[in-house]
């Protein structure tokens, strides 16, 4: 069962070290996050999966890693200086600043409708290059990785002798000064993109656009985000970006948010290569571009078969790593009842939950909106309490709930029941799991068990290149739960029988079944089961 809310994911991410707010020790920085020890593994695995599928498994793709800082003229001719704007409004009452298309004519902070007219706000961050900060020395932090690819089109063509159609893939940071960053990793100011610019013969672009749509949906499926959770939105003409001829937005059904963009697949015609070229008049461009007197290159391609020069058309699949990370976590997330809790324990929690809801309903210190939201959530949990019991922790983390005194009592009654009867598990695809194998000795003070378990760990980690951890800091049942929560597909226990005959037990995360196999066959076993 996917996650019920973004809060649920954010809470797991913080608790287990996937994601931290940036600069936490100084109160954070809005719209910026850090990937912790498990987060960086999951993120790298997502990126590696994207790279393998789009670069290594194809024979029509090259890779690139262009710089973040580029000549300012790139952003002039790409159209970003003029058009990369969001509509900004000010609230005259509380001085809040908002993105006009994200609010419904009312200030979300104070509720006032006394707002200024929207005005364009350019989202590119500026920085100064060199010791003197003046109007000539500034540069932008790139708001998309795509332009690094267009600016290198002629370099890649010359150094690889590629023929159309071919693509250039790149993963890297992008920066956008979002007016209101929000919803955890969904809308942030610093993020990574996985982008492809696929160059095709003019006239074949529509066919390639459809092929890329299919290829991308297959990849999402391969990482555990099913087609049934993605809607393909054919962006209407008046909603297209300045470069786009046609765009399919892949809309994923995020918890809390509903369907929102996870990837854009744009057909960019010859707009970009044409915009960055000199002698545009002689290139036979189909896109309308601004005159360029600064470029020293003609970004076209010699079509040998027809003895002519063409400016390739471009199909661009572009996905955000953070939005992908959220979708993967959301699909993998599950709270399972492991064994039915006794009725008296559930009823004790129900009593505490009802007292909590009553106390919230009477509390005048929190806003009416917060009160209604908490009470509604408490009722939702209570409607199927045996099943929803683990959601009590998120209920207690809702805005306004932390100040309710009886919340502590509710947590005190609910937590032991959750620990005993439920487990949180991430059903991540094994190739994405931050840790592939966890190894435990049955007893931590037995030299033979410890040494064999540590040997297995280092063998899998060093020789088989599988992220493997050793843990002996609790009872085996507790260690299983800990690994379930971070999505480790296999837990290996070394016991006394292991010392006698070289076998170990392997416990499967999803089925919770155990098998006894020879320790020396572990690598092969894990590889086969991970396919
Ligand atoms: N080169 C095309 C381009 O950048 P985009 O639709 O603006 O297109 C592509 O961005 C993807 O980047 C989006 O589908 C989304 O996944 C991600 N993205 C864009 N803005 C983001 C933000 N502020 N925070 C997180 N991800 C973002």
Task: Provide structural commentary.
The strands form 7 sheets. A 7-stranded mixed β-sheet has the order 3-9-10-16-13-12-11. The chain has a 5-stranded mixed β-sheet with strand order 20-19-21-22-23, sandwiched between helices. The mean pLDDT is 95. Helix 2 (37-56) crosses helix 9, helix 10 runs antiparallel to helix 11 and helix 10 runs antiparallel to helix 14 (406-421). It is of the alpha+beta class. It has 18 helices and 23 strands.
The average pLDDT is 95
Helix content: 25-40%
With helices defined by DSSP (H or I, 4 residues minimum), what is the helix count?
18
Structural Rg: 27 Å
> How many strands appear in the DSSP assignment?
23
Helix/strand/pairing category: alpha+beta
Q: Main β-sheet, in a few words?
A: 7 strands, mixed
Query: What best-fitting shape do the alpha-carbon axes yield?
Result: globular
Calculate the terminal CA-CA distance, rounded to whole Å.
22 Å
Give the neighbour order of strands across the main sheet: 3-9-10-16-13-12-11
Bound molecules: glycyl-adenosine-5'-phosphate
pLDDT < 50 stretches: none
Beta-strand portion reads: 15-25%
């Amino acid at each position: 069962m996917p996650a019920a809310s973004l809060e649920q994911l954010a809470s797991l991410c913080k608790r287990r070290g996937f994601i931290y707010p940036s600069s936490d020790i100084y109160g954070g920085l809005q719209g910026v996050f850090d990937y912790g020890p498990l987060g960086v593994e999951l993120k790298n695995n997502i990126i590696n999966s994207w790279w393998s599928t789009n670069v290594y498994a194809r024979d029509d793709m090259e890779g690139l890693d262009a710089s973040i800082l580029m000549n300012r003229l790139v952003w002039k001719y790409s159209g970003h200086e003029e058009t990369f704007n969001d509509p900004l409004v000010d609230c005259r009452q509380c001085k809040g600043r908002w993105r006009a298309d994200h609010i419904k004519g009312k200030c979300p902070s104070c509720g006032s409708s006394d707002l200024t007219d929207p005005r364009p706000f350019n989202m590119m961050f500026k920085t100064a290059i060199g010791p003197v900060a003046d109007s000539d020395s500034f540069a932008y932090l790139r708001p998309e990785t795509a332009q690094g690819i267009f600016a290198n089109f002629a370099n890649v063509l010359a150094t690889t002798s590629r023929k159309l159609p071919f693509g250039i893939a790149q993963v890297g940071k992008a920066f956008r000064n979002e007016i209101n960053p929000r919803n955890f990793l969904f809308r942030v100011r610093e993020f990574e993109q996985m982008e492809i610019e696929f160059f095709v013969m003019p006239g074949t672009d529509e066919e390639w656009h459809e092929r890329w749509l299919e290829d991308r949906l297959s990849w999402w499926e391969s990482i555990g985000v099913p087609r049934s959770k993605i809607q393909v939105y054919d962006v209407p003409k008046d909603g297209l970006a300045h470069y786009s001829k046609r765009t399919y937005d892949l809309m994923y059904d995020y918890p809390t948010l509903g369907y929102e963009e996870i990837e854009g697949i744009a057909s960019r015609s010859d707009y970009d290569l044409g915009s960055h070229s000199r002698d545009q008049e002689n290139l036979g461009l189909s896109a309308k571009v601004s005159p360029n007197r600064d470029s020293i290159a003609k970004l076209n391609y010699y079509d040998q078969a027809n003895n002519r020069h063409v400016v390739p058309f471009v199909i661009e699949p572009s996905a955000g790593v953070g939005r992908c990370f959220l979708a993967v976590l959301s699909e993998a997330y599950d709270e399972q009842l492991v064994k039915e809790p006794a009725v008296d324990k559930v009823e004790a929690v129900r009593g505490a939950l009802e007292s909590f809801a009553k106390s919230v309903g009477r509390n005048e210190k929190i806003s009416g909106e917060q009160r209604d939201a908490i009470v509604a959530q408490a009722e939702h949990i209570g409607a199927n309490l045996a099943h929803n019991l683990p959601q009590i922790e998120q209920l207690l983390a809702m805005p306004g709930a932390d100040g309710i005194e009886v919340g502590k009592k509710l947590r005190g009654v609910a937590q032991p029941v959750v620990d005993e009867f439920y487990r949180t598990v991430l059903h991540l695809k094994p190739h994405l799991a931050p840790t592939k194998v966890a190894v435990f000795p049955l007893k931590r003070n037995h030299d033979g068990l410890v040494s064999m378990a540590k040997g297995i760990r280092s063998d899998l980690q060093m020789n088989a290149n599988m992220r493997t951890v050793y843990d002996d800091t609790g009872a085996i049942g507790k260690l299983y739960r800990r690994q379930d929560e971070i999505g480790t597909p296999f837990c290996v226990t070394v016991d006394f029988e292991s010392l006698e005959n070289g076998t170990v037990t392997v416990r499967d995360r999803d089925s919770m079944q155990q098998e006894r196999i020879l320790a020396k066959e572990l690598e092969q076993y894990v590889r086969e089961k991970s396919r």
